[in-house]
Amino acid sequence: xxxxxILLAFIALLSxxxxxxxxxxxxxxxxxxxxxxxxxxxxxxxxxxxxDAEFISDPAGYALLCDVRQRVPGYQRSMDKxxxxxxxxxLIPQILYVHSLNLFDTQDYGASLAVMDGINPKHLDxxxxxxxxxxxxx
Length: 138
Known about the structure:
Layout: H1 2-37, H2 41-49, H3 59-70, H4 75-85, H5 92-105, H6 109-117, H7 126-137
Helix pairs in contact: 1-2, 2-3, 3-4, 3-5, 5-6
């Protein structure tokens, strides 16, 4: 009986520790998203880099999205690798959308249109669809 109580106490302690880790990761994720929304992509990326993929879905995708927003040199290679390794990621339309905007801003309209052709506007935020359709029609 005594061994069972010790075992149960140990299991409870491990569960509590795991829940605390999840709560901490969730808080860091929310903080990173808030920084991203404020346009603080470098700080946001730093937070996403520290997240554990076991607790948070696609931290590498969010970090890549920050790189694409910042136009970090070499982001296209990282983007291609991410898309190849994570073809089901829900972040791919966002990553491609931002990449297409980068191409558009550099006046590479043909390449921008080619990327946009692979994006379903339904997978974008409603606030992005007008700009997407405008730039695609340009």
